[in-house]
């Protein structure tokens, strides 16, 4: 029996007029001086004081802060400093809870957990996040139902190929449990240019299928032409090539996970990953900078909900193909 049930997933001061108006009593003495007695509340005023008056307590009352769990990845603003960043962790320091916020340039600052933060311009009080015990069936990061005693099965002869290391790490993070339960191994293709040669060496059959995930697989692209040529060399039904429309798999991560509204557009002729890092203000000079940036992006992914549907559906199709 299949150890998991696969599921495809698809915010003035007002002064008296001095003319004998109600609430003001004016006294004109024989010496020509004018004095006013203090204004007394009108006990017959059924509507009470003017709540919009600057003297009203309501005018000075601060909006109540809404308690919000300090979950990793949540973007907040610290009101006294204006520091905006994503929560990376909550820890105890000096006997109190503190929260660490990382801004879009990778810099971090630590603040006391509690009130004094904004989310979308509204005051919130950050409170410790206490995960609740699951009350229903456990789900994997891909949204599939996991069996109570799920174990990896012996590897199938079929394979899923991805272009590079980052693709493989993202697939592992979201679909790793599913793949182990199905006995599917993910291997690196090291670029779509190697597809035809790799298929020739693997010699796919009906029992040893290959599913291929390709970056930037759009009509008329170089990637599409290479895939079409490679498919002509194998038996029909033994290989399935699918892809996403993005230049790089980084873009398959929802930009909101790293505090962006959208991924920056990089001009042609600029190495894409380094161009992205420079747009974000992150270090970009060394290959190690690229690696650290990817780990930061990958670390923001919690489940399939943090990925774009154009990647989700393709990976699900490939898993279904090689396990059929």
Give the structure's gist in a few sentences.
This is DUF3097 domain-containing protein. The chain is 24% helix and 21% strand.
3D architecture notes:
The protein has 324 residues and is an alpha/beta fold. Among the domains are: 66-127, Roll (SH3 type barrels), CATH 2.30.30; 159-253 and 301-323, Rossmann fold (3-Layer(aba) Sandwich). The protein is built from 7 helices and 15 strands. A 7-stranded mixed beta sheet has the order 4-10-9-5-6-7-8, with no helix packed on it. A 4-stranded parallel beta sheet has the order 13-12-14-15, with helices on both faces. The model is unreliable at 1-5 and 7-38 (pLDDT under 50). Residues 1-65, 124-147 are annotated as: Disordered. It holds the Pfam family DUF3097_C. This is DUF3097 domain-containing protein. InterPro entries: DUF3097_C (IPR021447), DUF3097_N (IPR053883).
């Amino acid at each position: 029996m299949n150890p998991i049930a696969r599921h495809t997933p698809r915010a003035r001061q007002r002064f008296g007029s001095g003319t004998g108006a109600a609430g003001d009593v004016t006294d004109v003495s024989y010496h020509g001086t004018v004095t006013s007695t203090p204004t007394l509340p009108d006990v017959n005023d059924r509507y009470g004081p003017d709540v919009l008056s600057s003297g009203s307590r309501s005018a000075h009352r601060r909006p109540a802060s809404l308690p919000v769990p300090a979950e990793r990845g949540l973007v907040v603003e610290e009101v006294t400093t204006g520091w905006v960043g994503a929560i990376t962790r909550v820890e105890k320091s000096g006997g109190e809870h503190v929260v660490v916020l990382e801004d879009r340039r990778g810099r971090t600052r630590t603040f006391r957990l509690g009130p004094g933060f904004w989310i979308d311009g509204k005051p919130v009080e950050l409170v410790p996040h206490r995960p609740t015990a699951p009350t229903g069936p456990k789900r994997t990061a891909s949204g599939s139902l996991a069996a109570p005693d799920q174990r990896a099965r012996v590897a199938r002869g079929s394979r899923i190929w991805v272009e590079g290391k980052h693709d493989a790490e993202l697939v592992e993070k979201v679909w790793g449990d599913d793949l182990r339960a199905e006995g599917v191994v993910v291997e690196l293709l090291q670029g779509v240019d190697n597809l035809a040669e790799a298929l020739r060496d693997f010699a796919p059959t009906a029992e040893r299928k290959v599913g291929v995930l390709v970056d930037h697989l759009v009509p008329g692209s170089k990637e599409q032409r290479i895939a079409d040529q490679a498919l002509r060399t194998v038996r029909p039904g033994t290989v399935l090539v699918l892809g996403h429309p993005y230049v790089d798999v980084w873009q398959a991560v929802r930009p909101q996970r790293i505090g962006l509204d959208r991924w920056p557009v990089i001009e042609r002729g600029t190495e894409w990953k380094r161009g992205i890092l420079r747009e974000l203000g992150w270090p970009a000079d060394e290959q190690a900078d690229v690696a650290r940036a990817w780990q930061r992006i990958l670390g923001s992914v919690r489940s399939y909900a943090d990925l774009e549907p154009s990647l989700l559906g393709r990976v699900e199709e490939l898993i279904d193909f090689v396990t059929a």
